[in-house]
């Protein structure tokens, strides 16, 4: 996975980079088909904002969160992202269905 981090009106320190990388391990544990991740940290008035865009096969997942503390914003971001990934996995998962040609035979076999 390619990870891009940038900050607007904020310097991305090695501590923030390490914290985000450790939090992304949770996402990789659930779903390892992430191609790219773009993270943007910014400051607006007194709010810290964290945004992430994940590029997965056939879709882009974008999540953002705001909090007074940047580390808390990252935690909220990962919680939201985890829910979105689980939802994507359910929708993109295997679809076990019976073709229409064999549907009558499958119903008779179950009876």
Summarize the structure.
43% of the residues lie in helices and 33% in strands. The chain has 111 residues and is of the alpha+beta class. Helix 1 (14-30) runs parallel beside helix 2 (70-92).
Low-confidence stretches: none
C-alpha Rg (nearest Å): 20 Å
CATH architecture: 2-Layer Sandwich
Structural class: alpha+beta
How far is the N terminus from the C terminus? 48 Å
CATH-assigned fold name: Double Stranded RNA Binding Domain
Overall pLDDT = 86
- Name the beta content range: 25-35%
What is the total number of structural domains?
A: 1
CATH class: Alpha Beta
Q: How much helicity do the residues have?
A: 40-55%
Strand order of the largest sheet: 1-2-3-4
List the helices and strands and how they pair.
Elements: E1 2-8, H1 14-30, E2 34-44, E3 47-56, E4 59-67, H2 70-92, H3 103-110
Explain what you see.
A four-stranded mixed beta sheet has the order 1-2-3-4, with helices on one face. Helix content is 43%, strand content 33%. By secondary structure, it is α+β, with helices and mostly antiparallel strands. Helix 1 links the parallel strand 1 and strand 2 (34-44). The longest helix is centred in the last third of the chain and has 23 residues, at 70-92. The chain has a single domain (2-110), classed as Ribosome hibernation promotion factor-like (Double Stranded RNA Binding Domain, 2-Layer Sandwich), CATH 3.30.160.100.
Provide keyphrases for this structure.
43% helix; Double Stranded RNA Binding Domain; 111 residues; 3 helices; elongated; four-stranded mixed beta sheet; alpha+beta
């Amino acid at each position: 996975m390619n990870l891009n981090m940038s900050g607007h009106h904020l310097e991305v320190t090695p501590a923030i980079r390490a914290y985000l990388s450790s939090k992304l391990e949770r996402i990789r544990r659930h779903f390892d088909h992430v191609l790219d991740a773009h993270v943007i940290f910014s400051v607006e008035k007194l709010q810290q904002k964290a945004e992430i865009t994940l590029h997965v096969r056939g879709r882009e997942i974008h999540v953002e969160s705001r909090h007074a503390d940047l580390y808390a914003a990252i935690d909220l971001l990962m919680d939201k992202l985890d829910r979105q990934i689980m939802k994507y996995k359910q929708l993109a998962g295997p679809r076990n269905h019976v073709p229409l040609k064999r549907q009558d035979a499958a119903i008779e076999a179950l009876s």
